[in-house]
Structure formats: structure tokens, C-alpha cells
Amino acid sequence: MTVKTQLTGVEVAKHNSSSDCWVIVHGRAYDVTEFLPEHPGGQKIILKYAGKDATEEFDPIHPPDTLEKYLDKSKHLGPVDMTTVIKEATEDDPEELERQKRIAEMPLLEQCYNLMDFEAVAKRVMKKTAWGYYSSAADDEITMRENHSAFHRIWFRPQILVDVEKVDLGTTMLGTKVDIPFYVTATALGKLGHVEGEVVLTRAAHKHNVVQMIPTLASCAFDEIVDAAADGQVQWLQLYVNKDRDITKRIVEHAEKRGCKGLFITVDAPQLGRREKDMRSKFTDPGSNVQSGQAVETNQGAARAISSFIDPGLSWKDVPWFRSITKMPILLKGVQRVEDVIKAIEAGVQGVVLSNHGGRQLDFARSGIEILAETMPVLRQLGLENKIEIYIDGGIRRSTDIIKALCLGAKGVGIGRPFLYAMSAYGFNGVDRAMQLLKDEMEMNMRLIGAQNVDQLNPSMVDVKSLFNHGYGPADNLAVSVYDPLVTPGPRPKSKL
Amino acid sequence: MTVKTQLTGVEVAKHNSSSDCWVIVHGRAYDVTEFLPEHPGGQKIILKYAGKDATEEFDPIHPPDTLEKYLDKSKHLGPVDMTTVIKEATEDDPEELERQKRIAEMPLLEQCYNLMDFEAVAKRVMKKTAWGYYSSAADDEITMRENHSAFHRIWFRPQILVDVEKVDLGTTMLGTKVDIPFYVTATALGKLGHVEGEVVLTRAAHKHNVVQMIPTLASCAFDEIVDAAADGQVQWLQLYVNKDRDITKRIVEHAEKRGCKGLFITVDAPQLGRREKDMRSKFTDPGSNVQSGQAVETNQGAARAISSFIDPGLSWKDVPWFRSITKMPILLKGVQRVEDVIKAIEAGVQGVVLSNHGGRQLDFARSGIEILAETMPVLRQLGLENKIEIYIDGGIRRSTDIIKALCLGAKGVGIGRPFLYAMSAYGFNGVDRAMQLLKDEMEMNMRLIGAQNVDQLNPSMVDVKSLFNHGYGPADNLAVSVYDPLVTPGPRPKSKL
Amino acid sequence: MTVKTQLTGVEVAKHNSSSDCWVIVHGRAYDVTEFLPEHPGGQKIILKYAGKDATEEFDPIHPPDTLEKYLDKSKHLGPVDMTTVIKEATEDDPEELERQKRIAEMPLLEQCYNLMDFEAVAKRVMKKTAWGYYSSAADDEITMRENHSAFHRIWFRPQILVDVEKVDLGTTMLGTKVDIPFYVTATALGKLGHVEGEVVLTRAAHKHNVVQMIPTLASCAFDEIVDAAADGQVQWLQLYVNKDRDITKRIVEHAEKRGCKGLFITVDAPQLGRREKDMRSKFTDPGSNVQSGQAVETNQGAARAISSFIDPGLSWKDVPWFRSITKMPILLKGVQRVEDVIKAIEAGVQGVVLSNHGGRQLDFARSGIEILAETMPVLRQLGLENKIEIYIDGGIRRSTDIIKALCLGAKGVGIGRPFLYAMSAYGFNGVDRAMQLLKDEMEMNMRLIGAQNVDQLNPSMVDVKSLFNHGYGPADNLAVSVYDPLVTPGPRPKSKL
Amino acid sequence: MTVKTQLTGVEVAKHNSSSDCWVIVHGRAYDVTEFLPEHPGGQKIILKYAGKDATEEFDPIHPPDTLEKYLDKSKHLGPVDMTTVIKEATEDDPEELERQKRIAEMPLLEQCYNLMDFEAVAKRVMKKTAWGYYSSAADDEITMRENHSAFHRIWFRPQILVDVEKVDLGTTMLGTKVDIPFYVTATALGKLGHVEGEVVLTRAAHKHNVVQMIPTLASCAFDEIVDAAADGQVQWLQLYVNKDRDITKRIVEHAEKRGCKGLFITVDAPQLGRREKDMRSKFTDPGSNVQSGQAVETNQGAARAISSFIDPGLSWKDVPWFRSITKMPILLKGVQRVEDVIKAIEAGVQGVVLSNHGGRQLDFARSGIEILAETMPVLRQLGLENKIEIYIDGGIRRSTDIIKALCLGAKGVGIGRPFLYAMSAYGFNGVDRAMQLLKDEMEMNMRLIGAQNVDQLNPSMVDVKSLFNHGYGPADNLAVSVYDPLVTPGPRPKSKL
């Protein structure tokens, strides 16, 4: 790249149409005119910034190396003298002013006593669109809520008079010793919640000696996240499989080279979900589109914008190929019925994550914990219970949830959103405290259930009779809100005289 | 009819009593004095317009050919000079003003992301009486709500790692290829929601290549609806059987001649239901009737006013006669238990619709989806599962609902109210978008459940264990509202000194 | 009784202490000094009126012949010149003023479309204490609400294509032909709701050709109620058995002589229930009792005040004696488990009412309809199903409730509170309309379930799988209201600087 | 102890740092500098009172002999001239002013009709921190609420026509005759609710002839509570086992010597629970700790502060030792599954309390009543049902709850919080009335279920089919509050023009 004289804001501002579109990102200008039709998130969002500085919008949803990787070097126009770029007068958005007020009053970290508390704080202090992306789920968000509710249908049968002076929470996951049986599961777009993104989670995982699973759709670049890890800190890779298998191969090989110790192939997301809360939070006046009924494809939210590369053709036939390109243990993330757990064992993978993608994909998919309770008795009957490691994720908020999963046969559990919320509200300290709270809770609850270590947790310690009962599920909020309830008679009509 | 000089408003206004009653409809006067006692909707509603222009009230609940057909030509008094008719000063009805305000602020079509959203908008912008007619159901409206709630007790068991790059939503209904397995089911009085009435649905059905079922009680004339269909567009006929079988025969033969491809005989409505919300929305001061306890028969709502011709004597014995008068496939609409499905097969009909009439007839009738789940295992056991086509309707709001029905063995589902609401709020564009949303949802959810086409949907993909559990049903709103809950002690009584 | 000169208010007012206590009732003075300790309702309530006119308080809870019967003639002091009695200045009770306002706006009768509507109106227009007595039930009022809720766990399996042009609602109860299978069950203290009391129900029962059960604790005298009946109108007697069997015998013999056609012995009330809503509604400043913890026995509400004569020693051993003193059919009212139904058959009675006394006695007693569903299969297995007539009461509000009971094997159902509420709100016209609404509902619902007459109703028409499921019961309002829910963190503490 | 001249407030106030810390309690000064690091409740709370009068804070959570027992005599600095001690100006705490207002309006005792009423009053009039300690429970407080809810899933099958003129509520517990089958179970820190503490309960237990269980963590000294008992009044001892078995031995031997008739060893609390409501109610500005994520260990609430001595190593192996040091009957308090009941029988103890510690320890532990329903059928099958006495506690609020427990096989039930609330609101009179209300309720309900005495209560009188159904549990308040429900579309965006 030859040195160029600095561009000025005035110059860039001239290129502000779909036929001639420049944008500024991190102080450098790019000509994206030809790229416009290919942008996975649609042209519209780019055109909004045509001739302007797009950095703030760009950052959370693109790893920093995106432009390097995907835009031809010839379109890199070089540095801009940012003093010449007119800052858009931020309107006094009353919503934003309210949010700033809430931030000023946000609770002290010490006022958070459990993982729900972080979510409550995050809801108050996050930007609406970021909250919309993190908190949203598929359709009526039944499955998302069921994920946690399902744990409420499992009750304990504690043992008494066990010597629990010393309690050991540690276990081993894919050969790695960890201090407590959870890992930080992969979640996308960490910079929506915190300016530093996923590396915050890396540091907290290290402090508490748990594994972090690195997401394909991270805001940070993969290497940044690996670089943020401490010596010997174990990370796994979550993988969305690209239609272009060469790209996938490169990603996997690179991850293995960088030391990743597990490959978690997402199998519950051939297409990323419609999440209406996310879509609604991003809605803005569509202008001249008003008359048309054709606008379905707009405003699909962040999820679909960033996921068009995912291959819906991925199938069992691809598993041997994965085994051929890596020595990392391979796990299928998003298995949802016992039949497929058995298939996974037959396919020779090292593990499965029973998961519904945090309720973000197929609504009315069952919770991981319910699939686990369906799966283990069958595996035991077939003598297969030790053939693979079984993990679950979704809805874990209390150490009792972790203990229930382990009683039922899980090796460990993945936790995603709670750490995102803790990070969004309080940064590293929030995630640190969240993990510590789980440890404190778990140490006590191990004592109270009468177990000295996780190996002693067993099915006799839980009562799952009600787990499969879906007679009373999460509220159908939309249906309830549109229903016009019957009323008893009002006052008599007033005389018309 | 001889040409007459135009009548004047002053002249018409003189005939304003039950013994001499003229009304104006679409600019022409009619003498309805003798017809008064025969009016299915009662005399009162006509007398309200005695000597006046009744067009606005007349239109939504009478097909345009009604007066031609049912009022003797001698009573047709000819055109009125409408400039001489005094317009009733519309009172500044505060309720109507509020509604107009809501209309001005109604959401853009693009803000609707699912079928519930259209209902929410319709509730806000429709006239109270029209909303009352569409949204009301029998007694406590338990069944109406159960229709959708039942789907919430069915959970998915998705398959993973199926190649779902290409997903085909199409199927065949009574030999007709359709793009997605739903049809527009018959609903009465379309003009209450939209000035054009049912033809709006005709056009939308054509655009999305689905079948429309034409209702007996349409606001548009039957021929209008057929005429609105495109070349090759398939329509079915929903039939309320008249006490006078000759009329029924004429209707059926005419429908067949005009190309209808299916005859759906309604069997769940020997008498049309009492719908209290509808009745209450129409209540007006009954004046001198106040003292009497005899007023039960008034204000029965639109449903009963228009349905007095229906034959409550219809029975299994009539089925052979229907088979003798038409070559159209015959289906029974409103079958509600497996015993009657078997009887229907024995009677030689081509199909059944498991339905409770949208909850508008017998409250506590079970949902179509539950009857389906009861029926199919029995049919399979008897080897009868392929003898007829089985449809369900009631409560479908999401593509997941459609998929659940197909997994359980339905050929397709009927959707009624949601399209009425979309039409009432946004006209054709609303219905168009509603259908497109269902297609978008379904394409994604087929991928997520792991099915390439509807033939791959099967019972192993759903968990119906909780479907038959009615321990927690739709809220009993009236009972809850009249109950006076116990309270803890209030403050001490004030001293009387 | 010799003629006396009229007493004056001034004279009566002197006798205003517990050692010398006169009261005026219906314009006559009585010396109740010696009677004070025996008053079943306690001394306190009488002393409140010592030296004053007690008519308004006296009337609703004492039959008019009470003083004649229970107070020695020597204590009858003769007529008072009422012009000399000082009227107590009615304080401007703000609660009463509110009530009068609600009465002025009360809905027209025609605005009531179902039985719940009458209850809603009654709640608004009745005096708080009267409403408290009628609407209250035992403990947490769980059973009272369960009585109706239980019907919501029963669903229909309607038959189609049955010729239901003619529908016959009539049946026979204890040999009496009635127009619809309900009777007016016994409820106490009718004058609390309407100045005329139970005779209003007598007249309505006659108009609709149903049986009235006369309560022991009526506000009207027994003979008044019998006298109010039309020629040939059938009445039954509800009996609380007195500790003094001679009194009981006289009552039974008198009832038989006056033509009663059934004797319903209450067996679920050896002691009348504590009803806290009733007690709370009557609470007034206990004055000097404030310090004492001994006040449990006061303010027990109307129920216990009037019921001290009931014999808690009544047992199966008494049944033969009843059979010896009357030829009326004997029925046990309040049977609550199948074992006791069988005992009743063995004891030779003609019928039972499966009932929990409207939820007013033992909280968590099961609903009549659930006991019925438990009972009939056992009786059928033992071949006893036709040995007695089985009735249920409690919670019937819709004709669908009646139909469910008949499908399950009941001969008919008793309805109590709804008619009291209709009477309290609208007098005779209210009860008339309530009964007519039930007939209208039932005629339609018989058609919709596919039955021409009540004999065709059978167990295959209902789905009771969920009836026995008590996983989700009526709300525990007190527990919910005292629970202090966990909250997420509030704002950070304000700096103390 | 030699006589010293009185200290002055000025002198004491100089010793106000962690390196030199004096405090005043009950008019005497103590040097606690060296004791600071050992204080089970942490240094911080003491330092708040360094150089000041700590009596008010000290009293409720320390028995009066604490300083005598645990602080070396050399640190007892002798009496302080309290007239010289500056009273801290109580700030006009608006929360406290509100509370005083509520106290002024608190209901009369006669307005309390049931045990829930006392809780409602206590919630209004207690100090927030005291209420927080009494009312709080583990994690989401699911188990605490389930304890009472579980009773709502048990329904009665009453017998009729049993002679219940005389009803006897009495029974025998560990050989002691009591008037009604409940005992006052052990609860900590009675002085938080009432200045006199546990002795109030002692007196009430005597008046109603029931047993009191003396808590290890009482505010009163053990001997005070025993001294408060009347002649022949029976008391039991609840025991937290100390890591130092010598201390435990001394306590047990002393209790036996003082006449205790039962030793209840707590086995469900190897570590005292985290109770977030309690922690939150005590939260105050942590000042300079704000930045740190390490603050987990602060503000753990009263429970953990006072319980660090409890031995988490207690196990079945210790049972024989207990049998060797006392002749009192030994019972295990907190048994939670049938397997451990059988172990207890094998270990030769005299009884068990099926309990989850009032929901304060392991959340999602099952209710005592459910464990009872699991246990008794197994014991009966093994012929062990008479080998030990079985008690339950948790959630008893109504006499029907007691009756249900006895029907299912319990010997009696323990009641804790309700008496604390009655005491906190109304002192002795409150507890007296609470007990009397239970007696009144139970006498009536025994009549209504058809039992003359507690021996006649049996399993056929209850329907427990739904007890094990946990499909619908106590509300998950935190999860519900953080969930952001989907909404239907809002108004269209305003034009930006």
C-alpha cells in the first residue's frame, strides 16, 4: 500500500450515494460502492453512513480485521484527517438521556447477589439495540424462558449426615481440570455489551480457572481472544460451518495451531433465527417503503445480518471430514434428542452439548436439562453412558441448576448470557463477581445436598417427576396482550334525553 | 320494473313506523313493512332506520343481492334523490374520536412481525361492534383461547445435521398443489373489517397460491368472490345447510358449476353460538323494555341474526344425499372426536376438518390439534390413516403451529381470524404480509426441525405428553373478576370519640 | 295477652342496660333481659339496641315468628307509639354514600348475560355485611372457588350430525317433572339480599317449573315460603338436625303435612364454618376488649350466631329414626366420598347430594363434580348406579356445568348463590332472567353437544382426565399478599456527604 | 473482679480504632481490640461502634451471657457513667418515620383471624432488618413458599355422620401429653422481634400446653428460657453441633440436667444458608470497597455471622456418641428423604423431623409434607412405621395443614415463623391468640372431617394424588422481573420532517 496524502472529511462526504459510496472506519476511508450488494447486513445500513464516519456502528459487529480480510486492498483509500470530519450533532435523544440517568444511579457491584441481578442492571444500562440483541430469542421466546423454568421443575432429595467439611467443586472437561463445572459458552458480538468485547471473558475465565469457548461471531478477532489468554489457559472453538469448506478448514486448523482444545460444531443453526425483539429494537422509519408489503426482508436484526455464510447443507456426512482435518476433540453443539446423541456416539465424536442455542433458534425446542433427563436413562440402558462427554447449556442461573445437571449425568454446563450481562453492566469486575457468586453458592449447596465432590452427585438426589410436565409453560405474552377479556356489565347507559 | 320519478327524502321520511316502514339502501327506497316480522335480525334494527338511509348498517351483513333475492319486486320503490335526504348529524361520539386518533397513529405495516401483531392493531382501529363480532366466542371464550394454548403444550424434538439447504413448503390439498400447507378458512361478514370484504382474501390467496374457502355468510355475493379469483385459482365452498334443501341444492350445484373444488359442510353449528362480547358490544338502551325480564332474545349479536335458516336437523342420514347432488369432494367441517372421524370414513366423505368453529360454538370443546392427537393413533391402529384427508383449524398463529399439526398427521390447517385482522387493519397489503410472514417463519422452522419437505414431518418430532393436560387452562376472567379476595387486616378502626 | 296502653320511646329508652334490657321490634317492645345470655348470636349485638328500635338489624336473620316462638309471652310488652321513638341520626357513612351511588348507576337487567354478571352487580350494590355473609366461605375459600374451577378441567367430546331440531331439557327429580335439571338449593338468610326473602325464589322456581329446597335458616318463616308456592308447585325441605330431636320431628312432620316432597338432611355441617370475610365485614371497635387476647369468640359472623342448635352428634345411627318419622324421600346433603355414598345406599336413603356446602365448611374439601367422577365408576362396577338419585351442588354457573354433571351421572344440580345474587340485585326479575339464561344456554349447548334430551348425555361426551389434577388450584391470596418478593438491586445508596 | 471507678463516655470514645477498640454494652465498657479478628460477625460491625454504646445492636443477636463467656475477664473494663455518653442524634430516617406511622395504625389484635394476618402485621411494623432476618430464605425462596403451597395440593375426603359432639385434639409427643399436635419449633434471635425474646414463647406454650423447642441460637440465654417455664412444663433442645465436641457435650448435659425432654440435632445445616433478602436488607454503603469485586464475603446477613461454629463434618458416625452422652430421646431434625429415615431407624434414634429448615438452607428441597407422603408408605411396607416418631415442620398456617400431616402419619408438627410474627406484632397476646385460633380452627375441622380424636385421622381422609406434581411452583420472581416481554407494535414513528 503506497503512502497517500490524508483525505479530508469534505472530500469523503461527496461520495454519499449508492453509486459512489465511501465510508470512514477508524480514521481511514474505504470505497464500498462495489461491495454494497454483497454486504451480509444489507446495503441500507451502509448507505446510512455514506460519506460519513461509521466507526461507532461498525465496531461491535465486525472483528477489527474484517476490512482487511474482505475488502480488496484497492478500495482502501487511506487515512482521513479526522479534524475535518463534521461530527453529527447528536440529537438530544430523550431515551438516551433516560439511560444516562439510569447509569448514574446504577447499583454498586456489591448490591448484586445472584446472576439475575446482573441481568436486571444490564437491562437498565445497556443501549436498547444491544439489549435487544442479547436478550432476544426465537418467536415467542418460550424456549428461552423454559430453559431456566425447567430447572424449577426439578427438586432435590438431599442426603444428611455426610461429612462435608471439605467440598471439592473441581472436575475435568475434555481432559482439562477446572475449578467448577461450568464453562463460558460462545456468544456473539461481545462489543455490544462492553467496548473490549470477549477478551474480558477470557480474563475472568482465567481467574476462576474455567474454560472459555471462543465464538465464531466474536466482536474481537479470534487471535485477539487467544492472545488475551494466560499461559496454559484452555480455550475451545465454537464453529459455524461456512458454505466454503476451505474457509472452515483454515479456521479449524488455525484454532488448533493456536492451542484450542476442543471443537464445538454448532448443529442447531442451519439458519439463524428470527428474533422479533431484536428486530423491533432496530426498527426505524422505512420512509418510502411504507406502501409496500414486500419489506419482510428488512430489519432482520443483527443475527441474520452476520450469518449468511452459514451452511444449511451441513449433515452427518460431514462429520468424518471434520475428524480428518483436526485432532481436537469434536463435539456437536445443539443436539436435541436422544436419537441424535446415539448417532453422535456412532459418528465417533467426543461429546455433545444438549442445547437449543439459548432459545434463539427453534421456539418450543425443549430445554437442555430435559433432553439430558431423556437421554441418560437410554444411554445407561444401552451401556453407552461413558462413551462421550455430555454438556448442556441454557438457563443456568444458580449453582443449584449446575448441581441438578450433574446429578442427571452432565459433565458440565455452559453459561452464556449471564456473563454477558455482568460484563455489560460492570466489565471484568462484574464477570469476576458473577463467577465467584456461583462458586460460593455451589460450595454451600454441595454441603447442603450432602456431596463432597461432583462425582458423588447422582440421580437419586433429584426428583424429576415433574420435569416432563409442560402443562404450565412460560407466559404467551403476545396472545395474552391481544386477548380482550370478557367483562361484567358496566354502568347503565345514560339517558339520551 | 317501471321507471319512477325519483323519490325525495321528505317523502321517505314519512314512512317511519312499524305499520308503514320504508328504508333507503344504496340510493333506492324499499317498503319493508310486511317484511319486518320476517327479518332474521329482528324488527328493531330495521325500525331504527325507518324513513331513513340504512346503507351503512346494511352493507357489511348482507350480500349486495339480498334485496333482489328476498324482497318482492313490488316493494322496490325506486331511486331516491339523495341530495334531499337529511344526513343524520353524527354526534361527536367520543369513542369514535378516540378510534380516529388511534387510526392516525397506527403502526406501519413493517412494524408487524407476526400474526398476533395484526390482531393487536385491528383491536385498536376496528369499530367496536366489528371487533366484537370477529373476536368474540362462546360463553367464557375458553375454547377460543385453548385453541392456541394447546399448541403451547406441544414441544419439538428436532433432528440435527439434515441437509436443509433446499426446503420445500408445498403440499397437495384435495388434489390442488399449494405453496404452503394452510388455506384461508371461511369466516362470515368480511365487510365488517374491510369495505371490499372477502374478495381481498381471494386476491391474497392467489398471490400466495393457497386455497380460499368461500363462506356461506360472506358479505360479498358468492359470485363476486368467484369472479375475483384468478384463472385456475382454486376455491372451496363452506356450507351451512338450509332447512329448505332445495336452496341448499341450488347453492351446491351453482358452486360446482362455478368451479369450486371442495364442499365443506359445517357440522358443529346446528345453532349459532351466543357470544357475549358481541352482544355486549351491541347493547344500547332498550328504553321501555327496562322493566321486563323477557328481553333475553334481544341483542343476540350478529351471529344469530343471520343464521336462522340453518337446519338443526342435519344428520348422518343426509350425507348420501349430498353425495348424490355433487361430484365435489365432500368434507365435514367441525368433527370433534375420533368416533365421528371413523363414522365419516364409513360415510364415504373425502375428508374432515377437526375444528370447534374458532371457539364460537360450544365452550370447552377441545382444540382441533388435541382431537388430531387423539385421532391419528386410533386411525393408524385401524389402518385407516390414509382413507381421508384430515385438516384442523383454530388457533394457528405461528408456523410452528402448522408444523406441529403436520407432524401429528394433518394434511393442512385452516386460518381464519388472523387474515381478517390483517385485512381489517391494512387491507390487501396486510393479508399479503401475514401470509409472507408465515412462509418466512415456516421455511426457517422447517430447517431448524430438520425437514426438507412436509412429508418428512412425523410424530417423533413432537412431544405431546402434556397436550392432554388441562390442569391449567385459559383464565376464567369473569369468575376471577367477581371474586372478592380475602385480605389481611386493615388499620385499626378510628376512635369514635 | 291483655290490651295495654301504648308505650312511648322515652319509656323504652330507660331500659338500656344488661340488667334491664328492652328492645323494639316491628313497633312492639320486648323485655329481653333474661334472654340475653341465651341469645345464640351473643349479648353484645342485642345490647347495641338496648332501649332502641332493633327492627332493621333483627329482620334479615330472624324469621318473623321468632319472638312468638322463643320469647315467653310475659316478656311481650306490647305496642310502642313509634312517633315517640327517636330515630338515630344515620351518620353520613361515606361507604353507604358510595354504595348508593353505585346503585344509581347499576346496570340494566338486560346488560346481564350470564350468572357471573349478577354476582358482579350484587357485589357492587349489596350492603357490605350482607355481601360478606353470602359470598364468604371457609378459611382461604379454596374450596368455594374450586367448586367452579373444577368444571374448567372437564372438556367436551361433542357428537356431530345428530338431529337436534327438538331439544328437551326436562327431567324427573324424586318423581317430580321439571323443565330443566336444576333446583334452587337451600341458602340461609334471604332477607339480607332482598326485603321479601326466600318467597322471591319460590315464585321464580314456579315460573320456570323447577323445585325449590326450603332452608332451615330462612329469613321467611317456613309456612310463608310454602304459602308462596303455587298450586302443585313442588318444594323440598333442607334440614339442620336439632339437638332436641322433638323439635326436629315437629319440623319434619309439619313439612310433610304442608306437602314437601323431599327431606334433605345436611350432613356436612356438624358445626357451622368460620368464614373470615364474614367476620371481617362485621368487625367493629371492640372497645375495652382491646387488651385481651380472649376475644376469639366474638364476631364469628352471622353463620355461627344462628346455628348453635345444630347437633354435632348426628350419625348414621339416626338414619333409621328419620325413616320412621316421615314418608318423604330422605336424601343426605353433603356426602363427600364414594365410601359414604355406598353407606348411604346401604342405609336405604333415596338419594345424596355430593356437596361441600358451597365451600363454607371444610376448606380443601373436593368439589361435588369431582366426587361424582370418583363415585359413578365405582357404583357402576358394583351395579349400584341406579339405586339412588345423585345430585351435586357447588360452583354451577353455566349450562355447560349442568351438562357436564349429567354426562357424569348426576340426576340434577343445585344452584344457590347465583340466584341469591340475582335476587339481591334485581329481585324477582333478576332470578327470572337468571333462570331463563340457563335455559337458553342449555338448549343451545344440548344441540352443540349433539343430545336431544338429557338421557342421551353420557360419559363418552366428556374428557375428565384433568379433573383430578390439583396441581394448580385457586390462588392462595393471603399467602401471596404477605409474601415479600425478592427484588433486583435498587439504585446505589446516596453518598452521605 | 475488683471495683473500678466509673469510666466516662469521653474516655471510652478515645478508643475508636481497629488498633484500640472499646465498646459499651449495657452500661459497661469492654476492650475488644484483640477479639476483633475472631468476631464471627466480622470486624466491621464492631468498628461501627468503636468508642460508642453498642447495646441496641448487640442485644438481639447475643445471649446476655455472651461477653461473660467469650471475652476474657481482663477485657471487662467496668461500668461507664452513662450520663456522660453522648447519644447519637438519631437521624430523621424517613423509613423509620413511616414505620412508626404504621405502628400507630396497626390493627387491633381482634382483627387478626388467622396466622397469615400476624405475618401481614409483622411485615408492616417490624424493623426492616429484623423482618429481613425472619422472613428470608435460601436463593429464590422457592422451598420456603413450597412448604405452604404443598398443603394446597392435598385435598380432603371427609367422613360424614360421625358423632363429633366431643372432639379431642390432644396427643402425646415423646411421652408428653399436649393439648394440640403442634410444638413451638426452634427459631433464632427472638429479640429481633420482641425485646423479651424467646421467653414470650415459653409462656404461651405453657398456657396452651404445648412443647417449646429451645434454639441453640436464641437471643435469651438457655437458662433464662428454662427458668421461664412453669412447673412441669416440657421443653426440648435444638442443637447445632459445635466443631468442639466438648462444648456440645456440656450443652447437652446441661440441658438434660435442667430437664429438657428431647434432643433435636439439626442435620440440614452443615453451613447456614445464604439469604439474599436478609443480605439486601443489611446493605449499606461499603465506601472504599466500591471498586473491588472481592466483596462477596461481606453482608452475609445475620445467619452466617452467628453460625461459624457449626460443624460441617457431622456425620452418621457421630450418632452413637450422642446416644452415649445423654438419656434424652434423640431426634434428627432436617431429614429429607425416605432412605435417611430408614437409616435413622437403623441408627437407633427416637424420631425424625422431616424438614428443610423453613426453606432457609437448600432451595428446591422438598416440603416436609411431601417427604412424609413419600416416607410412610415405604415404612408401612417395611413394617417400620411405629419404630420412631415422625414430625414435620415448614409452612403450617392452618389447622387443616396439621390435620393433613396427621392423616399422612405425622405425630405432630412444628410451627416457627408464625409465632415469631405474632410475637413481633403483639407480644404474648399475639402468640396466645395465634395458638387459640389454631385450636378453634382445629376443633371445627376435626368435626368437619369426621374425626373424634387424632387417632382417627388416616390416609383415606386425604387425596395426595397431586402432591408430587411440581409442574406449577412458587413464582420465580427474579426471573419474571428481569424478563422483558414481547410487545405488539407501538405507534408509527413520527415523521422527522
Brief rundown of the structure:
Four copies of one chain form a homotetramer. Chain A is an alpha/beta fold. Chain A is built from 19 helices and 17 strands.
Radius of gyration of chain A: 25 Å
Number of contiguous helices of chain A: 19
| Strand proportion of chain A | 5-15%
Give the total of beta strands of chain A: 17
Instruction: Give the terminus-to-terminus CA distance of chain A.
Output: 88 Å
Order of strands in the sheet with the most strands of chain A? 9-16-15-14-13-12-11-10
Mean pLDDT of chain A: 91
Name the CATH class of the largest domain in chain A.
Alpha Beta
CATH architecture of the largest domain in chain A: Alpha-Beta Barrel
Q: Uncertain regions of chain A: pLDDT < 50 for 5+ in a row?
A: 285-299
Structural class of chain A: alpha/beta
Identify the quaternary structure here.
homotetramer
Helix content of chain A: 25-40%
| CATH topology-level name of the largest domain in chain A | TIM Barrel
**Overall structural domain count of chain A:** 2
Question: Largest interface here, residues on each chain?
Answer: A-B, 68 and 69 residues
What would you call the shape of chain A?
globular
